[in-house]
Design brief:
Blueprint (H helix, E strand, L loop, with lengths): L2 H4 L21 H5 L4 H20 L6 E5 L2 H12 L10 H8 L1 H15 L6 E5 L3 H14 L36 H6 L7
Length: 192
């Protein structure tokens, strides 16, 4: 099972981020019946061994669980459904997961019991506010690896020079792309 992920592991000096990774087996595959109970049990036995092998070979492995409440997940789904620029992100699997919240929660709990080890612990990230969750995860990750702060030079916006006699030509002299986004968002002033 793990072989499909091995080719994506980092070489020395690289960083690789997996979204779900091999843990699909303990989550969506279990809940949706894409693996047998025997395959899931084998995964839960092998996973800590596989991860220990990676660590023994010098890989710094960090596992993060981005945790949202049932209500927050539903709010996000509704927000996507009502946003014509983002509704494509909703898959039939996402919609099915609404009915299976408890199954996913139990699967996550079992997964953590079997795969949260001293060498490779799970770190839970409160994720009700996406931006904060991402910043908290990045900050935590950096605190766990050999890293030194890089001083960032403060940039100041220069003052725009005094405008000469240039005037933009009237809009009706150019051919503009139709404002398709306004038809989706309902905001005719979006591009003005």
């Amino acid at each position: 099972y793990f072989q499909r992920y091995i080719e994506h592991l980092p070489s020395r000096g690289e960083i690789v981020l997996f979204d779900r990774s091999w843990y699909n087996r303990a989550g969506v595959e279990r809940v949706m019946g894409f693996c047998t109970p025997q395959e899931e049990a084998l995964f839960l036995r092998q996973c800590p061994i596989f991860e220990q092998m990676l660590i023994d070979d010098g890989i710094l492995l960090r596992k993060y669980w981005f945790s949202v409440s049932e209500d927050e997940q539903l709010r996000r789904f509704k927000s996507r459904m009502n946003d014509p620029l983002r509704y494509w992100k909703l898959s039939p699997m996402d919609l099915e997961s609404i009915y299976r919240w408890e199954d996913y929660s139990r699967a996550k709990d079992d997964m953590m019991v079997h795969t949260d080890t001293p060498a490779s612990p799970w770190f839970v990230v409160e994720s009700a506010i996406k931006k904060n969750a991402r910043l908290n995860m990045i900050s935590h990750l950096l605190s766990t690896i050999p890293y030194h702060e890089v001083e960032i030079e403060k940039v100041e916006l220069p003052k725009r020079p005094q405008v000469g006699n240039y005037r933009r030509p009237p809009r009706d002299l150019a051919t503009y792309v139709p404002d398709f986004a306004a038809t989706l968002t309902g905001d005719p002033e979006a591009n003005t």
